[in-house]
Amino acid sequence: MQIDGHAMWGHDFKLLTNPITGKKTSFNRQLKRLTDEQRDKWLAAYTPKNDAFREANLSGKELGIWKFNRYLKDYLRTIQSIDDGVGEVLNYLDENNLTENTIVVYTSDQGFYLGEHGWFDKRFMYEESLRTPILMRYPKEIKRGTQIDELIQNLDFAPTFLDYAGIDIPKSLQGKSFRNIVNKTSSEWRDAIYYTYYEYPSVHMVKRHYGVRTNRYKLIHFYYDIDEWEMYDLEKDPSEMNNIYDAPNYKHIKKIMHERLIEIRNKYGDTDELNKIHLERYLAF
User: Fold this and answer.
1) Which of 106, 147, 224, 231 is the most buried (most CB within 10 A)?
2) What φ, ψ does residue 229 adopt, rounded to 5°?
């Protein structure tokens, strides 16, 4: 998952030809999805930049810096475009008197690495990809400037939206509505969240792992063809650079986190065998 080493010339850096082999990259297929007008605009924007890159004939550290800048700038421009689009939607709601009766939700399916830990992409349980943005606007009920710090998950989205819509929440859903947390009518909420990733061997070759996170601590188990444990004190080490799993002064905390992990895996019915079935289905697809 290193930008300089594992990112692809086409998909990630948007080059139409591989600078090493001279062959066409996979990005040519992606360009076919665009209309003629969109393709012409894309080529007008990227062709001069790609030509300049080839002429520079970069190598070593300079090539790595170019890759990082190309990837990061494209990512940030994408975010800017999304922000602009959201602004257009909000303006439309305001201009058509729909604001008071419309719930607007801005979120994502995961966070993303932009060089942290030396990576790009997602998948790991570390904070950069585990933490997911969510902003909501509903003037009719949500007070402007409201912030909550509870352990909200995307599995809570469906129950919450059903709750706001006045529709019964099926008992089969694993998440909980956080409506009462937002409007401050309740303080009862979960004290830990669970994470599991089992798509290995696959894209980026991230090892299978699962873990539990509380407000302060995180315990992760990497398994399948390895058996490694990591634990972090997020208050003292928010960037998760110091694995304290074997630290003597955290022995009691480690015991509590292991117990919590067993409880939460049982709650969701997750097992290594179930992960194996999921992976087999994923690879078959």
Assistant:
1) 231
2) -120, 145
38-47's contacts with Cβ under 8 Å and 24+ in sequence apart are 46/14
CB of 1 closer than 8 Å to CB of 120: yes
What pLDDT sits at residue 285?
46
221: tokens are 């188990």
- CA–CA dist 218, 211 (Å, integer): 7
Got the DSSP string for 35-52?
-HHHHHHHHHHHHHHHHH
**Cβ–Cβ contacts within 10 Å for residue 94, how many?**
10
Within 10 angstroms of residue 120's Cβ, the number of other Cβ atoms is: 23
Task: Spell out the long-range contacts of 70-78 with Cβ–Cβ below 8 A and sequence spacing 24 or more.
Answer: 70/13, 70/14, 71/3, 71/7, 71/12, 71/13, 71/120, 72/114, 72/115, 74/14, 75/112, 75/114
Q: In this structure, what are the phi and psi dihedrals at residue 147, rounded to the nearest 5 degrees?
A: -130, 140
pLDDT of residue 283 exceeding 70 = no
The more confident residue out of 97 and 187 is: 97
CA dist 89 and 92 (Å) reads: 5
How does DSSP classify residue 229? E
CB-based contact 16:50 (threshold 8 Å): yes
Q: Would you say 137 and 104 are in contact if contact means Cβ atoms under 8 Å apart?
A: yes
- Give the amino acid at 128: E
Chain-wide mean pLDDT for the chain?
Answer: 93
Distances (CA, A) of 219 to 17, 175, 216, 254, 274: 43, 21, 11, 8, 20
Candidates 85, 170, 162, 71; CA nearest to 115 is 71
